[in-house]
Amino acid sequence: MEIARSLSKVALFQCFPEEELSQFLKEGGMKLMHYAKNQLVALQGDACTSLDVIVEGRLSLQSIDEQGTVFKARVLEAGEIWGATLLFSRYNQYPLQVVCDRACSVIRIKRSVVLSLCSAKPDFLVGLLQIISDRTYELGLTVTKLNEQTLRQSLLDYLSQLSLQQGSDMVTLPMSKTELARRLGYARTSLSRELALLRNEELLSFNGRQVHLHISSKS
């Protein structure tokens, strides 16, 4: 029952009454997992065999280079889902390792159950396809940024996307500035310098992870 209640709070599953989710649970194929901070959830190259839903805590998708530097490609918070782009692919190996950043609980849903959920509710299928499409779009943006954009362009685009997601000009960074710099492909000092320049130009202000965008008022 705990799994059904947790899933019913996640946007993708809100098309299902809690009682119907409980029925799927009785049929098997859903499991609640708990991970401690810094615990490895999946290795790079592991096969993705489930759709995973974070109900509490935080995970990150990351890689480590030969010098031991950690690059966090994506940070996932409670309510987010991963594995959607891999579960039905012929190439279903994790391209990055999955690490628990903060003690978390994850519901793992087997592929067969995901197919049953898609058959039961067209809204669920549409929502899942939307997640897959959004991730593909985000990947395309990332490749474009890495290949073409300056740090300023990449940073402003990232903050603008964050503003849309959070529905406010006052946004909270989901990662540290060091992690953000790595994600954008620049040094931490370069990011700090660019943020200071943007603040001096009154395009934004910031305090810790809180960033207030003034771009709209300047346009």
Question: Your description of this structure?
Answer:
With 219 residues, this protein is an alpha+beta fold. Helix content is 42%, strand content 27%. It contains 8 helices and 9 strands. The strands form 2 sheets. Strands 1, 2, 3, 4, 5 and 6 form a 6-stranded antiparallel sheet that branches. Strands 7-9-8 form a 3-stranded antiparallel sheet. A hairpin with a 2-residue loop joins β8 and β9. The chain is globular. The relative contact order is 0.13. The model has no long low-confidence stretch (mean pLDDT 88).
Structural class: alpha+beta
Multimeric status of the protein: single chain
**Biggest β-sheet strands, sense, barrel:** 6 strands, antiparallel
The percentage of residues in β strands lies in 25-35%
Uncertain runs are none
Q: List SSEs in N-to-C order.
A: HHEEEEEEHHHEHHEEH
Mean pLDDT, rounded to whole units?
A: 88
